[in-house]
Structure formats: structure tokens, C-alpha cells
Amino acid sequence: MTPRPATDSPTDLVILAPVFNDWPAVRLLLPRLDTELAKHRLRARVVLVNDGSFVPPPAVLVDEELSAISQLRVLSLRRNLGHQRALAVGLAFVHAQMPCSAVVVMDADGEDDPADVPRLVAELRGGGDGAIVFAQRIRRSEGLVFALLYRLYRAMHRLLTGISVQVGNFSVVPFALLDRLVVVSDLWNHYAAAVFQSRLPYRMVPTQRGRRLSGESSMNLVSLVGHGLSAIAVFADRVGVRILIAAIATLLATILGLGIVVGRSLVTHAAPASWILVAAVVALVVVVQTIATASLFVLQVLFARGGASFIPARDYQFFVNSDDLVAARAERAV
After folding, report:
1. Any idea what the Cα angle at residue 195 is, between residues 191 and 198, rounded to 5°?
2. CA dihedral in degrees (156, 113, 328, 74; nearest 10)?
3. Per-residue pLDDT for 334 more than 50?
4. Percent of the chain at pLDDT exceeding 90
5. What span, in angstroms and rounded, lies between the C-alpha atoms of 37 and 42?
């Protein structure tokens, strides 16, 4: 049976944040998050998804009494799954165990500014259409190398999928849409891409990416490339079709070019240069092979749609090791 939201008011929130060894940042984040929620008379339960951290969480995660955060839970996974899959498990867990009005998805390192949480919730409340509200990144705080690589990824993503990358994970999901999201298999690969691919309604609020509160990011070149490919893989059918169309267009252009060369040679009674003919033949072979490969790829993607796949709402429990309530207080109006 589908869990029902505890209230129709978007003030009853669950805040979901994956954590991999970033416990010092979490200790700094929680008081700031509590302060921002209290300012806007919001209340929330926080779920930290311990993504197989080899550094155990501290015995005390908060040193002071929290006023707006009524519960703090640590959901420990059996193994490290990676940020996106930890989110998938966390969202499925919240859907099954913690009915609420909406779920805030954010990073636990402080790069998602706690001050933006009330802004996203206000947009959800004011929109009236029940759409997912994403934080649109208009400025990032990473170094030059990361920024250049990220721009390259965005260009590749736009070329292959036709979709511009403007958001990350930072968002607010109405509980009614969470019910639909947790049965989307693509959620296992990439949260934001799964939302777009499943055509769930969404809106965006401009935000600036913050800086880490503590420590260094575990994101390196390999994990960055893997993260980007995971997002693109969600649109595999679209990518395959676009490659196929591009290959067919290139084939037609090559045939047209070869026809022009041969036609001119017939008119002028001059044999075309041998290198031109060799290049044209090689181009034809390459393009035909590309079309064949793209066609097989598209057919494989379409065939795979009928096979069994990971469904977060059904399969999340296999990855949950423990659910620990580490802090709680009696509910009261904020």
C-alpha cells in the first residue's frame, strides 16, 4: 500500500543527504540547517545515508539542541554504492518508512547552501503545480580544472542528449511525485537525469554553489567521468538515435560529395585524383560501420527495456544495513 503524506503543508519535510566519510562537515552543516529552518518556521526530519563510510560517524553528531530538526537518523548501507545510488536507496527508504509532505535532497558537505532550502520550499509552496523544484546552478565554487572539465561534460551532454545540464541533486520533491520517482529504474544511475527522462514536472530556482565546510572532495577525474557517463546513460535511447541520425546525414553528405567529384570528372573528361577516391571510399566504409553500430546499439537499448531491472521501491532494502535514530525531540510548533 502506498504511504500517504503526513500533512498537506510543505513545512513537514524530510531532508536526505548521502555521506561518505564527511562527518566533520555534517557536524558543521546540521546547526546551520537547523537555524535556517527555524527562521522560516519549517520543521524537518534529517536522514543521513551513510554510504559505506570507512570512517564511522561520531558518537555525537550535534553538540547543541536543535529546534527545527525533530529527528536525526543515520541510514547505513551494506557497502559503498556511490552518491547517486545512495540517493536512490535513501529516497526509496523515505517513501516506504517516512511519509511527509516533501523530501529535500542535498549534499552533506555544505556545497548546497542551507539558506537555499527555505527558498526551494517556498517555490514549491507557491507554485501550486506539485512540481519538483531544483536548485539551478548559476555559479560554481570549484577550481579552474574542475570548471573546465565540467564545461566539457555539459557540452558533450548537450550534444549527445539534446538536454542542457543546469541542475545537480539539490532539490525538493513533493511526496506525491516521490511515489512515482521510486519506481523509475533510471534512478539507480542518476537522480536528476531520471527525473528528466521520466518526464516528471519540475521547475528551477537560481542558486550559487557553496564551498565545502570541511575536508576535501572525494570527487576525482575518474569519478567525475563516471558520474557524467551515468547521467548520459539514462538517455541511452536518445543518444543512440541521435548518433544514428548523424551517421546517416554524414553518409548522405559523403555520397553527395563523391557524386560531385565523379560528375565533374565526367564533364571535364579528367580523372579525379586517386587520393580523393580513396578518401571517399574510406569515408563510406567508416560511416556505414557507424550506422550499423548505432543501429545495433539502439536495438539493444530498446530490447533491454523489456528486461528485469533495478526498481528502487522494491530493491532498496537489500542494501540497508541499519537505521539508527541518533537524535530526537518531542514534536512542537516551530
Report:
1. 130
2. 30
3. no
4. 41
5. 5
Euclidean distance between CA atoms 90 and 81, whole angstroms: 12
pLDDT at 148: 78
All three cell numbers of 311, joined, read: 526498481
Residue 196 has pLDDT above 70, yes or no: yes
**CA pair distance 121, 141, nearest whole angstrom:** 23
C-alpha cell at 253: 553528405
Question: Residue 245 and residue 239: Cα distance in Å, rounded?
Answer: 10
d(CA 123, CA 46): 20
Strands, sheet with 320-328, edge to edge from the N-terminal-most edge strand: 202-208, 132-139, 167-174, 102-105, 12-19, 43-50, 69-77, 320-328
Contacts of 324 (CB under 8 A, 6+ apart): 73, 74, 75, 76
C-alpha cell of 102? 516533501
pTM of the model: 0.80
User: In terms of pLDDT, which residue wins out, 9 or 274?
Assistant: 274
DSSP 114: T
Q: What is the mean pLDDT of residues 280-306?
A: 66
C-alpha grid cell, residue 160: 549527445
Distances (CA, A) of 133 to 35, 107, 121, 125, 206: 22, 16, 8, 10, 11
Return the HEC string of 41-86. CCEEEEEEEECCCCCCCCCCCCCCCCCCEEEEEEEEECCCCCHHHH
The answer for 143, left when phi > 0, alpha when psi is -120 to 50, beta otherwise, is: beta
Residue 318 has what pLDDT?
95
Helix H or strand E encompassing 173: strand 167-174
